[in-house]
Specification:
The complex is a heterodimer of chains A (210) and B (384).
Chain A (H helix, E strand, L loop, with lengths): L10 E5 L2 H13 L7 E4 L3 H13 L5 E7 L4 H14 L13 E3 L7 E7 L8 H6 L8 H10 L13 H10 L8 H6 L8 H14 L2
Parallel strand pairs in A: 1-2, 1-3, 3-5
Antiparallel strand pairs in A: 4-5
Helix pairs in contact in A: 2-3, 5-6
Chain B lengths: L14 E6 L2 E6 L5 E5 L6 H12 L4 H10 L3 E6 L4 E5 L15 E5 L8 E6 L3 H10 L9 E8 L2 E11 L4 E5 L18 E4 L6 H11 L4 H12 L7 E7 L11 E6 L6 E2 L5 H14 L5 E4 L11 H14 L3 E5 L3 H13 L5 E9 L2 E8 H10 L5
Parallel strand pairs in B: 3-16, 3-17, 11-15, 15-16
Antiparallel strand pairs in B: 1-2, 1-6, 4-5, 6-7, 7-8, 8-9, 9-10, 12-13, 13-14, 17-18
Helix pairs in contact in B: 4-6, 5-6, 7-8, 8-9
Classes of the chains: A alpha/beta (210), B alpha+beta (384).
C-alpha cells in the first residue's frame, strides 16, 4: 500500500508475479501512448484472488485491471475470477471477451478489466504471450524449439502444459540479458507491435483512460 | 470470527439514518458487535455515533438539546433587547438546517420501519393552538408556528419548544406547558449508552463511572487494562481507586490514583501517561453501558500501536460478555490492523469496519468483514 495516495492509485493493475509486472512495465515504456496506471505484483494467484474485493473497494479507485494466466483451463480460471468479482458486487459476463474483458463502472463500483493470459481465448500463460512477441524470422527461435523437442520424454521434468514456457526460456537464455524478459523487451528484441501485444495495449487503454 | 454469529441480539443489527445533521440519507446494512467507522474528515463519522445516541434515547428532547449544546448551537429565543434569553438551536439536528413543515429525522434499524425513532416538524392541531393562545398572551401569528415531536413505538412526545417563523429563519420559543403534551409514559424504554470523545475523559466523568465499578469484578478488568497500557514500561499496577473531593470546583478534585509495585505511595493515574488514562476511561465506560451502547470517537487516541491488538481483544470480549454494542471512529491504519488481528485470534468476535463515503452528494457505507480486514492487513491494502 502506497502511503499518501497518489492519483495513480485510482487506477491499478493486479498481476500474479514479478514476470508479469516486468513484461507489462516494459511494454508500457515502449508505448508512450499508454495511459498511466499503477501495477502491483500480488505474489501468487490465490493472494490476487483474495484481494480482488478489497482492491475494488479502495477509496477513490476508478479502475481495477486483473491479469492472470489461464493455465490449463480458460473456463476454470474465468470462473474463479468471476466468482470473486461477483462477490464484490460486479456484474460479470458469462464468457471472457477475446479483446480483453471490460466491465464499465456502476454506482460506487469502479471499472473492472480482466485479461486472461495469453489471449483470452486459449489456455496458456504469460510465456505464450511473450512467444508471440518474438520476431517470426528470429534465427534462434526454431533452434530453441528443437532443443526442447529433442529432450527425450523420460528426461523431461516439466508437465506438457509447460512446454512453451520451457521453449521461451530456452530462447531467453540466448539473449543479451539471458533469462530476463523485461530488459529484452526494453532492448527491442521482443516486439511490441504484433497483433496480440496491440490487443493487450488497447485493452489497457480502454480500461484506464479517463 | 464467525459471520453467522452476528445476530439479532445486537441493539442495532443495521442502521438507517435520514435527515440527521449532514446526512441526507445513509443505510448501513450490517453493524457488528463492534463496528469501526472510517472515512475522510467531515464525512459524518461522528454524526453516525450521535445518531445512534439519539436512537438509544428514543429521540428524547434532552438528547437533542445535549447535542445542540455540545455543538454550541445557540439561538436568541425570547426577551427584549436588555435581557435576551438563549436557547438551543435545534435546526442543526435537521439536514440542511431546515426547520420547516414536514422536515424529519429517522434513525433505526434498516429493515424495521416500526422500530425507527422519528423526529418531525409538524403543524399544531386545533386543540394545541387553543392551548398556545391561552398560554401566550403575547401576540403571535399562530399560522406560522410549528411544533417538533418525537415518535417511537407509536408513542408521540412534543418538545417544549415552538418554532416561530420570522421572515427568514425559524426560531424557538420555550414553552414549558408543552412537556405535558403527548404520551406521559414516553420514552418507553431507553438503552444505556456512554460516549467517549477524542480527548481524554475528564475526572468528574471518570469519578461517576468509577462509582459503578467500585468493589466489583470490574476493578480487576480496570487493572488489567492499565497493565495493558503500561506493558513494557517496567511499571506494574497493583491497585487503583479514586480519591478526592467530589466537588468539581475543589482543588483537591476527585481523581484516580494507582498503587504500583515497588512504590510505597500511590501515584496519580495522570502521571502514567495518556494511554493509561484512555484505557482506564474505556474500561470504566464499558462497565457503565452493559446491555447498551458505547460510542468512542477516534478510539486510538493516546494509545501506542503495540497495544492496539490486545485492546481490541479486550473490548471484543467485554462487549460480547456484557451485551454491549460498540461503535468507534478511527483514522488509524494501525488501529484497523490491530482490530483485524484481534478478530483473527478471537473466533467468536463479530467485528465490522464501515468506511463512509459521499458519492455525488449522498452517503454510502462500504463494508469490510473481519475476513476481508485480515487479508487487507496481510497485503497492506488500504481500507480507510
Amino acid at each position: 500500500m502506497a502511503e499518501g495516495k497518489s492519483d495513480k492509485m485510482s487506477k491499478i493493475l493486479l498481476v500474479e508475479g514479478p514476470n508479469d509486472l516486468h513484461v507489462i512495465r516494459h511494454i508500457r515504456k515502449k508505448n508512450p501512448r499508454i495511459v498511466d496506471f499503477d501495477i502491483e505484483d500480488k505474489k501468487g494467484l490465490e493472494r490476487l484472488l483474495n484481494a480482488i474485493a478489497l482492491e475494488i473497494k479502495v477509496s477513490g479507485r476508478n479502475a481495477v485491471g486483473i491479469v492472470v494466466d489461464a493455465n490449463d483451463s480458460l473456463i476454470e480460471r474465468w470462473s474463479s475470477v468471476s466468482k470473486k468479482l461477483r462477490d464484490a458486487g460486479i456484474v460479470v459476463p458469462k464468457t471472457p471477451d477475446s479483446q480483453g474483458t471490460i466491465i464499465e463502472a456502476s454506482g460506487s463500483l469502479p471499472k473492472v478489466g480482466v485479461w486472461l493470459m495469453p489471449n483470452n481465448e486459449s489456455r496458456g500463460e504469460l510465456e505464450h504471450f511473450v512467444q508471440e512477441m518474438i520476431d517470426p524470422d528470429d534465427p534462434v527461435w526454431p533452434k530453441s524449439c528443437s532443443y526442447i523437442d529433442n529432450i527425450p520424454e523420460k528426461d523431461r521434468k516439466f508437465r506438457e502444459s509447460k512446454e512453451m514456457k520451457a521453449k521461451v526460456y530456452a530462447w531467453l537464455s540466448t539473449q543479451e540479458t539471458p533469462g530476463l524478459m523485461g530488459p529484452i523487451i526494453g532492448s527491442g528484441q521482443l516486439s511490441c507491435d504484433g497483433p496480440l501485444c496491440n490487443r493487450f495495449t488497447s485493452w489497457i487503454n480502454r480500461l484506464f483512460k479517463n | 470470527m464467525n459471520q453467522h454469529h452476528i445476530n439479532s441480539t445486537l441493539h442495532l443489527p443495521s442502521l438507517f439514518i435520514k435527515g440527521f445533521r449532514g446526512i441526507e440519507s445513509l443505510n448501513i446494512p450490517r453493524l457488528g458487535r463492534v463496528t469501526l467507522l472510517a472515512g475522510k474528515n467531515g464525512i459524518g463519522k461522528t454524526s453516525v455515533l450521535e445518531a445512534c445516541r439519539v436512537y438509544a434515547e428514543r429521540g428524547h428532547p434532552m438528547v437533542l438539546s445535549d447535542l445542540g449544546r455540545e455543538h454550541e448551537e445557540y439561538i436568541v429565543s425570547s426577551g427584549n433587547e436588555n435581557r435576551r434569553e438563549f436557547d438551543i438551536d435545534l435546526s442543526g439536528i435537521f439536514f440542511g438546517r431546515q426547520l420547516t413543515k414536514n422536515t424529519s429525522v429517522a434513525i433505526g434499524p434498516s429493515n424495521r420501519q416500526a422500530d425507527l425513532v422519528k423526529v418531525e416538524v409538524v403543524e399544531p392541531n386545533k386543540k394545541q393552538v387553543d392551548i398556545l393562545i391561552e398560554d401566550n398572551p403575547i401576540e403571535l401569528s399562530w399560522e406560522n408556528v410549528l411544533l417538533i415531536r418525537t415518535i417511537f413505538n407509536k408513542k408521540k412526545l412534543f418538545f417544549p419548544y415552538l418554532i416561530r417563523h420570522s421572515s427568514q429563519t425559524g426560531f424557538l420559543v420555550h414553552h414549558h406547558r408543552m412537556r405535558f403534551w403527548g404520551e406521559s409514559r414516553f420514552p418507553v424504554q431507553t438503552l444505556r449508552h456512554e460516549t467517549l470523545g477524542p480527548g481524554l475523559t475528564l475526572n468528574h466523568q471518570l469519578a461517576k463511572y468509577w462509582d459503578e465499578v467500585a468493589l466489583t469484578e470490574w476493578e480487576n478488568r480496570v487493572i488489567k487494562a492499565l497493565r495493558l497500557a503500561l506493558n513494557g514500561s517496567g511499571k506494574s499496577v497493583e491497585r487503583v481507586t479514586m480519591v478526592g473531593n467530589p466537588d468539581r470546583r475543589s482543588s483537591n478534585t476527585r481523581r484516580a490514583v494507582v498503587k504500583l509495585a515497588n512504590h510505597e505511595k500511590p501515584v496519580p493515574l495522570k502521571s502514567l501517561g495518556d494511554g493509561a488514562i484512555r484505557l482506564f476511561g474505556i474500561t470504566l465506560a464499558l462497565a457503565n453501558c452493559r446491555d447498551g451502547f458505547l460510542f468512542i470517537d477516534e478510539v486510538e487516541n493516546g494509545i501506542h500501536l503495540s497495544v492496539l491488538k490486545d485492546l481490541w481483544k479486550f473490548i471484543l470480549k467485554i462487549a460480547r460478555e456484557n451485551n454491549i454494542q460498540v461503535l468507534a471512529t478511527t483514522h488509524g491504519w494501525d488501529c484497523i490492523k490491530g482490530f483485524a488481528q484481534a478478530a483473527l485470534e478471537d473466533k467468536e468476535s463479530e467485528g465490522v469496519l464501515i468506511r463512509l463515503e459521499r458519492q455525488s452528494g449522498h452517503h454510502e457505507a462500504i463494508e469490510y468483514s473481519e475476513r476481508e480486514l485480515v487479508i487487507a492487513a496481510e497485503q497492506n491494502i488500504e481500507v480507510r
